[in-house]
Amino acid sequence: MRKHEIGIVVSGKMGKTAIVQVERMTQHPVYKKYIKRYTTYKAHDEENACSVGDKVMIVETRPLSKTKRWNVKKIIEKAAEV
Fold first, then answer.
1. 14: pLDDT confidence band, cut at 50, 70 and 90?
2. Sign of the CA dihedral 72, 48, 18, 21?
3. For the chain, how are helix, strand and coil distributed in percent, rounded to 5?
4. pTM of the entire structure?
5. Sign of the C-alpha dihedral, residues 32, 39, 5, 11?
6. Would you say residue 82 has pLDDT above 80?
7. Which residues contact 16 (CB under 8 A, 6 or more apart)?
8. CA angle, corner 77, sides to 34 and 43, nearest 5?
9. Distance between CA 58 and CA 70 in Å, rounded?
10. What is the CB-side half-sphere exposure of residue 3 using CA atoms within 13 A?
11. 9 pLDDT band (50/70/90 cuts)?
12. Where are the domains of the chain?
């Protein structure tokens, strides 16, 4: 079973690559308060369909380049047009 994450596209300036920010909640070891932490992944987007603000599901895959190890599986929600 491959890992999958849901996140927001924060940049789409590279060709066939989207930078996806994934949010997670972690508990502080001493104060026990929950804190938001973010991780960014470079994901392969074959059709260049993603734009900034889209909510996407990414799936782990084999290394596609030096830093790209994820693939955009589907766009869950498109960003609101302004």
1. very high
2. negative
3. 0, 55, 45
4. 0.89
5. positive
6. no
7. 44, 45, 46, 48
8. 75
9. 6
10. 8
11. very high
12. 4-77
Q: For residue range 34-79, what is the model confidence (pLDDT) as tens digits?
A: 999 999 999 999 999 999 999 999 999 999 999 999 999 999 999 9
Which residues, at least 6 apart from 72, have a Cβ–Cβ distance to it below 8 Å? 18, 20, 43, 44, 45, 46, 49, 50, 56, 57, 58
Per CATH, is 4-77 categorized as 1.25.40.20?
no
CB 60 within 8 A of CB 69: yes
Closest C-alpha among 5, 14, 80, 82 to residue 48: 14
**What span, in angstroms and rounded, lies between the C-alpha atoms of 82 and 24?**
28
